[in-house]
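STRUCTURE:
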């Protein structure tokens, strides 16, 4: 038996995705959506239908959806594509201090063109306050980029309040949000998020395979291409579309979002059960990261280094992360932002659920953590 608690890192492709994928690949639907002949027209129909499905989820128009290889590519295209018009004109971009590297490193890369990158940290209670972002807006602010949920701590950032208030002060500011960790796992009301101009999403965090993701780009936003090629996807992401994955991603996401209330309930029950268990162990501490979602939990385990614990758990077929998967064991810049003590920083574990996890798995997890303490610390 394997227990997979690293669903922020990636997820197992769903039955819906894999069954539709094999059907699709074995069918005659191998045409290129840009071809003018009947096969091309048939492929384009499938592409347009997938966009229609996603538009119903994102409450946007079908032609506002662009497909990418994942969130890293989406974030780069959104930020660089928008900022490129403003090079060397002393503009600024406001962001949070806990963004994913695909946002923060992309923003830092703009410094050489004269951009100031203004980072807003959480307050002492671990929460982010909209007014801290809003008070930084000035006449040179062109963009605000803020994630919806942090991938290491599960902290919720107030993207609606930030975008609504920013647009009142300065309607021309473009708001971008990386919603990788909230889409399909929280109750996102897209019709209330009309002031967000660009969204980033990724398939593999939500039971699609790696290599597919996208952007919602509102009609009012003009991005310059950062990759050059044909005319596909308004020339923003040129290249032949990954039709099989696009088709299956849309069906998979539709199924997840149609069941969102049931799914949120699963996450909430898993969270409550996990928290109740923590109380039984005085050497395990729940991290304090302000308001958080139910599917991401960050804990620290007294006196055991995270990497040792990750390996110990792995040897018992339990898979968790010591921080973000992409940081591969480096000390977390995000946890430092939340002012964790050094010992907590060294011993932190991220548990991230999918709807397929169970309470029995949580029981086993705690038994193995208890075993780790006895074996590693000789208790
Ligand atoms: N943004 C966030 C918040 C993430 O958690 C991740 C993945 N860790 C990414 C972006 C990058 O996603 P992808 O692997 O699809 O490029």
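SEQUENCE:
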């Amino acid at each position: 038996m394997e227990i997979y608690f690293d669903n922020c890192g990636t997820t197992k492709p769903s039955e819906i995705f894999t069954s539709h994928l094999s059907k699709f690949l074995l069918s005659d639907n191998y045409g290129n959506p840009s071809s003018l002949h009947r096969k091309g027209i048939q492929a384009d129909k499938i592409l347009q239908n997938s966009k229609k499905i996603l538009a119903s989820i994102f409450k946007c128009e079908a032609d506002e959806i662009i497909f990418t290889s994942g969130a890293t590519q989406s974030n780069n295209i959104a930020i660089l594509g928008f900022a490129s018009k403003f090079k060397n004109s002393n503009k600024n971009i406001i962001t949070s201090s806990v963004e994913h590297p695909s946002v923060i490193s992309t923003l830092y890369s703009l410094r050489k063109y004269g951009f100031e990158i203004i980072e807003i940290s959480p307050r002492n209670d671990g929460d982010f306050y909209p007014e801290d972002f809003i008070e930084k807006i000035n006449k040179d602010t062109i963009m605000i980029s803020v994630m919806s949920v942090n991938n290491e701590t599960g902290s919720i950032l107030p993207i609606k309040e930030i975008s609504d208030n920013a647009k009142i002060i300065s309607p021309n500011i473009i708001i971008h949000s990386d919603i990788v960790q909230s889409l399909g796992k929280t109750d996102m009301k897209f019709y209330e998020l009309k002031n967000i101009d660009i969204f980033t999403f990724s398939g593999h965090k939500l039971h699609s395979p790696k290599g597919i993701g996208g952007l919602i780009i509102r009609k009012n936003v003009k991005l310059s291409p950062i990759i050059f090629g044909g005319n596909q996807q308004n020339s923003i992401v040129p290249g032949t579309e990954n039709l099989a994955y696009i088709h299956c991603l849309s069906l998979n996401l539709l199924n997840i979002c149609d069941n969102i209330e049931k799914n949120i309930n699963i996450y909430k029950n898993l969270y409550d059960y996990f928290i109740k268990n923590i109380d039984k162990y005085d050497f395990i501490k729940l991290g304090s990261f302000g308001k958080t979602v139910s599917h991401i939990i960050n804990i620290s385990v007294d006196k055991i280094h995270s990497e040792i614990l990750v390996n110990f758990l792995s040897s018992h077929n339990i898979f968790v992360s010591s921080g973000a998967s992409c940081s591969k064991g480096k000390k977390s810049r995000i946890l430092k932002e939340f002012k964790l003590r050094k010992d907590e920083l060294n011993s932190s574990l991220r548990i991230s659920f999918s709807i397929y996890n169970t309470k029995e798995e949580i029981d086993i997890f705690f038994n193995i953590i208890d075993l780790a303490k006895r074996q590693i610390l000789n208790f």
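REMARK: The first helix runs from residue 15 to 26.
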